[in-house]
Amino acid sequence: MTSRELREKFLSFFEKNGHKIVPSSSLLPSDPTVLFTTAGMQQFKPYYLGEKSLFGKNAASCQKCLRISDIDEVGDERHLTFFEMLGNFSFGGYQKEEAIKLAKEFLDSVGIKIDYVTVFSGDKEVLRDEESAKIWQKLGFSEEKGTLRFCGREDNFWGPTGEEGPCGPTTEIYSQDIEVWNIVFNQYYCHKDKSLTELPLFGVDTGMGLERLAKVSQNVPTVFETDLFGLIMKEIKGDDLKTKRIIADHAKSAVFLASEGILPSNLERGYILRRLIRRGIRYGKLLNLSHDFLIPLAKKVIEIYKDIYPEVLSKEDEIIGIIRGEEEKFEKTLEQGLKEFKDYVLRKEPKGGHAGVARDQMILDGKEAFYLYQTFGFPKEIMQELCKEENIKFDERGFEEELKKHQELSRTASAGMFKGGLVDSGEQAVKYHTANHLLLAALRQVLGSHVLQRGSNITEERLRFDFSHPDKMTEEEIKKVEDIVNQKIKEGLPVVCEEMAFNKAKEVGAMGVFESKYGEKVKVYTVGDFSKEICGGPHVNNTSELGHFKIVKEESSSSGIRRIRAILE
Ligand code: ALA
Questions:
Q1: Whether 380 and 474 share a structural domain
Q2: CATH of the domain at 17
């Protein structure tokens, strides 16, 4: 079946079975503690806690999702950054038996064979899910046949999204060796300290990746051969399949992010968009694609989705403009780097009275490679290619060592959630990035802990910072905030970066939450004992590098959100 048929059949099946069909929410959730929508349940989160649902007890949707945490897996048969999630949800309506039966019935109706299912095996805190096991057994699944399997926390427990929220044991459905459907029983509330308490009502939250369902239904080897990718993949010339898949994935995510009004920048959502575009381009270089190859790909993405998500069509010009602009910026940086690289080779070559080094003895050493990486955003793979072309050696170990050293010095420009990311941050922008952290901490000190970051944008000239606060700031408050930030600059506080598991970061009270998996590694930047934030970086080493901080404007951004513009002098 085509993806369109699958989408429609899913929604009409659940509508027939008493669910209200709810449109996809934005990729940018209203919950300030998460960066992107990563699951269908996010827009329904309050209903699991007992808030009255606007849609009745049962709902179903097809939700746009973005999961950056899977980026390193993109290119295999099933992982993607952007995907659509089909889901049915119940807030105090039906429970395990109906949820499982509905899932089985739907898959039967579209001719998908379940190979096996998994059920939560229980641990110290949460009981083994015997009830789900019994339901599956009644449907003909058994441990003896290997069609019913028990798994622990790692595999069969879900949530919460963000700092806290509903969570619970899952039962998962596998077909053709991939997990197609995750059925979560939201029985618990997971608090900030990770402790669990029972929810007032029984919740069902399911998620089935449309791309995976299409892969299984269309019986193709990977999600990239489905009709959700066919047109895009065809447009990419080149042999290396994995590279092509990564490019196709990133082109798609970039289109959807740009369609939500996000602009490439060095911070947060904008940073993710920048990284996706640049990572796509970097892989494009490996296939020798023309410099603006992302544009025709973006157009294919729009063609595939224009009827389902009309915003990609109505925003077409903006989307193309954003991608083109970023391509040009990155191209310039890469060109400068190329010149630097050629100069390096020339400097070393024998000429005049200077003996120099013969080509086959020449090495691009770790320090120089790191310089190219940091200043011009040259990814390792490109340097390897260039060295091959010039017939010189690449000191990979030296480069890795430099990279590590730098990370330890906390000045890495590769983001924690984006290993091997590219770099382009100008020095001034890096300073603003650190000033941003100081500003947030100062605002919380002066206005209160209700202040959370709600957006930010940094250029070489200024920072713009949006935060939650109901009232206009008084002049006195503005002055206080400025004074605190300048005091912290004067104190010359060290900026230290540590990598730690996401849950650990939460435990130590780090602000700011990227969508992260339980246990996933994140970077935490600490400024003296003044500020602690989960953040990809980069930052200065010491606050004394910042200069004088000045707020030039304080205004309303939207309801309940204030906006500050500030400069470093
Ligand atoms: N919320 C669950 C998931 O995203 C269904 O897997």
A1: no
A2: 3.30.930.10
- Give the angle subtended at the CA of 280 by the CAs of 424 and 523, to the nearest 5°: 55
* Distance (Å, whole) CA 408 – CA 400: 12
Query: Which ligand 1 atom sits nearest the alpha carbon of residue 85?
Result: 4
Task: Give the span between the Cα atoms of 296 and 526, in whole angstroms.
Answer: 43
Residue 419 C-alpha to ligand 1 middle, in angstroms?
24
Of 178, 203, 221, the domain-final residue: 221
Q: How many domains does the chain have?
A: 3
What's the chain's Rg over C-alpha atoms?
Answer: 25
| pLDDT tens, position by position, 102-132 | 999 999 999 999 999 999 999 999 999 999 9
pLDDT digits (tens, 9 = 90+) for 409-435: 533 333 333 322 233 346 787 898 899
Using CA atoms, how far apart are residues 470 and 486, in angstroms rounded to an integer?
A: 25
Q: Is the pTM of this model over 0.85?
A: no
- The answer on 424 and 381 residing in a single domain is no
> Could you tell me if 159 and 108 lie in one domain?
yes
Between CA 41 and CA 170 the distance in angstroms is 14
**C-alpha 32 – ligand 1 centre gap (Å):** 19
Mutational test site, ligand 1, from 157, 181, 182, max ligand atoms within 8 Å of CB:
182
What is the Cα–Cα distance from 112 to 109, expressed in whole angstroms? 8
Domain membership of residue 464 as a residue range: 419-568
Residues 111 and 43 in one domain: yes
Q: Are residues 400 and 253 in the same domain?
A: yes
